[in-house]
Amino acid sequence: MTGRGRSPSCPRRNDGAGFDPERVRDGGGFGLTSMRRRVSRLAGTLEIESEPGAGTAISASVPAVARG
């Protein structure tokens, strides 16, 4: 988790099989759909970079909210 003084960000990267993000945008399972919905509810952004055979990088950022 990064983001001290700004929106927290949670980047993740792997060097696995990867996939074509455009092919799974509107279906293909619940994982990415659930992640998009959760981040959206927090007024955040979800960035997905992936390519078949080249792994995947996912970064979720949400606005920082002061406590109190």
From TrEMBL:
CDD domains to which the protein is assigned, alphabetical: HATPase_UhpB-NarQ-NarX-like
User: One short Pfam family name for this protein?
Assistant: HATPase_c
InterPro entries documented for this protein: HATPase_C_sf (IPR036890), HATPase_dom (IPR003594), His_kinase_dom (IPR005467), Sensor_HK_TwoCompSys (IPR050482)
Where is there biased composition of kind Basic and acidic residues?
12-26
UniProt entry tagged with the keyword Nucleotide-binding: yes
Boundaries of every Histidine kinase domain copy:
13-66
Question: What SUPFAM superfamilies does the record point to?
Answer: ATPase domain of HSP90 chaperone/DNA topoisomerase II/histidine kinase
Q: Which terms are listed as keywords in the entry?
A: ATP-binding, Kinase, Nucleotide-binding, Transferase, Two-component regulatory system
A molecular-function term among this protein's GO annotations: ATP binding
Q: For the region Disordered, what residue ranges are annotated? A: 1-32
Q: Which domain of life is it from?
A: Bacteria
Stored PANTHER family: NITRATE/NITRITE SENSOR PROTEIN NARX-RELATED
* Official protein name in the record: ATP-binding protein
